[in-house]
Model the fold of this input.
Amino acid sequence: MTSTTTAAVQYAHATGVFKLTFLLILLPAIGAAVLLLGGKRTNAWGHLLGCAMPIGSFVIAVIEFFALIGRDGGENRQLDQHLFSWVPVAGFHVDANVLLDPLSICFVLLITGVGSLIHIYSIGYMEHDPDRRRFFGQLNLFVAAMLLLVLADNYLVLYVGWEGVGLASYLLIGFWHHKPSAAVAAKKAFLVNRVGDLGLSFAVMLMFTTFGTVAFDGVFNGASSGHARTGTMTAIGLLLLLGACGKSAQAPLQSWLLDAMEGPTPVSALIHAATMVTAGVYLVARSGAIYDVAPHARLLVEIVGGVTLVMGAIIGCAYDDIKKVLAASTMSQIGYMMLAVGFGPGAYAIGILHLLTHGFFKANMFLGAGSVMHGNNDEVNMRRYGGLRHVMPVTFMTFAFGYLAIIGMIPFSGFFSKDKIIEVALDHGGASGWIFGIVAIAGAGMTAFYMTRLMLMTFFGNKRWPRDVHPHESPKVMLVPMAILAAGSLVLGYLLILGGSLQHFLTPSVGPSLEVGAHTISPVVLSIITLAVVAGGVGAAWWIIGRKPVAAEQAPNVRPYAHATRRSLTGDAVNEAVFMRPGQYLTRALVYFDNRGVDGIVNGFAAGVGGTSARIRRVQTGFVRSYALSMLGGALAIGTTVVLLRVGS
Amino acid sequence: MDITYYLYLSAVLFTIGAVGVLVRRNAIVVFMCVELMLNAVNLSLVTFARMNSNLDGQVIAFFVMVVAAAEVVIGLAIIMSIFRSRRSASVDDANLLKY
Done:
């Protein structure tokens, strides 16, 4: 399809300013170490250090970004820095290297940029929390692990970062571990992620047995050389997809993300909206060379993306918890990205484009939701909000920017990125192109519906605050990051698409954009169709929710499908019935076997010996004459035997 | 006189001694029966020494006598102390050391 599949991947050596790449990871890692090991001594200035580290990384990232733009295209923009030999075993050599290329710098800028803003926001949000220092330490740990993930130049180091973000996610979801729901949610997220991580680890092992290396260049060159069997490549692709599904909360491993909202809201914004959950998209985009030779795996990526897109949108329509609606929306939007990267060469950049714009507007909305919660005694039920635009005008404005961006309103960022995905889907051609294109358009309509519902229930309509709640606007330290993200939600999409800038920039990493001869539907017409569908979704939301006052309680008796949607499309029930119960029965059977079988043999033998000896010891009666009789008997027996043997021989 | 008669006598004495040990309760009598058995063995030892024309059996008989003398000292002391504490010389009464 494109020339990238044949051109050998070759990374240049990092020089000059690019030698600072390792500092990107090191700074937040130092921050995490100091804050987590320093204890109470760092309480006073912990949050400042916690903010300084990602900001420092961001400054380095910006410098490197401009230095990278200053270089000629192609291999010159892919810079590998050798740090140390990690596994120097003969036949299995893994270096700890950092790879700075257009794809990774996009992620680095997103992680450190949005991450820094969220750190600053957290100063205000977590102000009254006694454990604020620990929070910043763990947030730094997350940033360090995430940067390691995207800067790795081989799959093993990537895996370390992958597990690192999983750990940080677990710690931060369960940050308020005194709440049982938070502790359970953290455990659930960790366990579901383990399933995906298993897939990734198997994929890495399979790569090693197939290509003899886990380095990106070795694997990609091996994959595109065509020596490996298609079946093997499909298996690697599917295992990578399993890993991506776990980390990115895609069907069928989506169930953890809604519960993950138990964590503090900045965590939801950074980890469960902007960065960590997009790691799956990064993995698929980065492994493009593998998917290029595994069309079946690629089709499954598209299907997973399409299914999750619709699923997330449907779930988002039913919840009253503002954070869970946003979480379902995140699932749905990542479904869009998966769909885009599933379309393969030329579409990777589109997926990354949506990832970047989504990172901004979704982080913006999560911070907005956090601000709303902050002003409403941590209430998350939208049925207790209403009419907040008067008391929280700045939050309302910034949230509105995110809202307009996510529904794809022109000229907000979501319009450019989402329309591109729909366009690519339709241009993909064939039945699958039409199906995914229509799914994507329908998803845009549903997105408009549930986001409008959220807006109406939160900021408009009748005031439904409980008597003791007095909503108020948040402090500036929270509002400024929100405003910056809101500005990003407005302009980022246009900036990135201007003259195909992002696509050209990403070409060395993910291949050139696809040259389409003729569009299935011309982009202008498609945009009009999409905007019409979006307008329909907004109108439907107003028709159903906006016209009349919202009830302060959820209607208890609803139709079965609505009930199922409130239970996140019975996802948890399915997991419980298919995996948890059989697992429980299996463990019970094993425990029974252990108690009765294994322990039974051991204990039975011991009891047998004990019982026998208890009977035998009765022989010792204490009567000397009976002993004498036994002695005589024994002596006679021995004597008789000796005599008989003599006679016999 | 045939020398085997000594052996018959020895066997008879040993049997009387053994039966005495088994059936009598009085510790003194049991003790005497044990002595009887020892002396029956001594008799057969010296008889064999005579039969085989060497002195080994006689030497061993002396050893047995020495051991028996020592045993009498210990044994009578034990019987004495048991009798003092329990007012009985019956071996069946001293049956505390058991399971």
About this structure: The longest strand of chain A covers residues 79-89. The radius of gyration of chain A is 31 Å.
